[in-house]
Amino acid sequence: FDHAAAVDAVYGEVEQGLLEKLKLFTIDTKALDDKETYILRPDLGRKLTDAAKETLLQKCEKNAQVQIIVSNGLSASAINANLENVLLSLQQSLASLNLKMGTPFYIEQGRVGLMDDIGEVLQPEVVVYLIGERPGLVSAESMSAYLCYKPRKETIESDRTVVSNIHKGGIPPAEAGAYLGNLIQKILKYEASGVTLVQREE
After folding, report:
1. Is the alpha carbon torsion for 24, 30, 31, 32 positive or negative?
2. 131 forms bridges with which residues in the sheet?
3. Could you report the per-residue pLDDT of 161-200, keeping only the tens digit for each?
4. Exposed / middle / buried, residue 104 (Cβ in 10 Å: 0-12, 13-18, 19+)
5. Edge-to-edge, what's the strand order for the sheet holding 143-149?
6. Helix (H) or strand (E) holding 130
7. Is 65 exposed, middle or buried (0-12, 13-18, 19+ CB in 10 A)?
8. pTM
9. Angle (nearest 5°) at CA 166 between 159 and 15
């Protein structure tokens, strides 16, 4: 596996044109624009700035059934390669299931735990977090989707459902979107995600 591709993935940028095409506005975390801080201080990537909270309250509706959020995470390449197909097929899937979506947006330097902060601000029923994975042995373009039912400050890691390995050599992006739609429907039905969802389905 190519070390240079991994470095590009982590230090690269998500294409501005892609975000504009998908109509995603951008907010910052407390890790702001410094990659070194982001890598060394995961805690800062889990917190919104006050300005970001203000922006969300202005631009997003509260209490949506499904709130989709996107971040470069540890691979901008993953977002550049997969986001468009995953997002469009997920939006299509949610529309066909008659689920009401909030306004999706992009987060610079976000970590997974940030969904709890966003849950506190916007209070959606389900948050779907599309995020670039740490470049692995197989691909620098792998994206994950984290889903959580009513994420809040007290949410723990085992409350999250994860679908990883979304890329052309793993779960194809367009298929991933449809799969996530069905998963969201289940989360809403059982009012649970993560380990609790598995237990309730049994």
Report:
1. positive
2. 71, 144
3. 999 999 999 999 999 999 999 999 999 999 999 999 999 9
4. buried
5. 25-28, 105-108, 66-71, 126-132, 143-149, 160-166
6. strand 126-132
7. middle
8. 0.94
9. 105
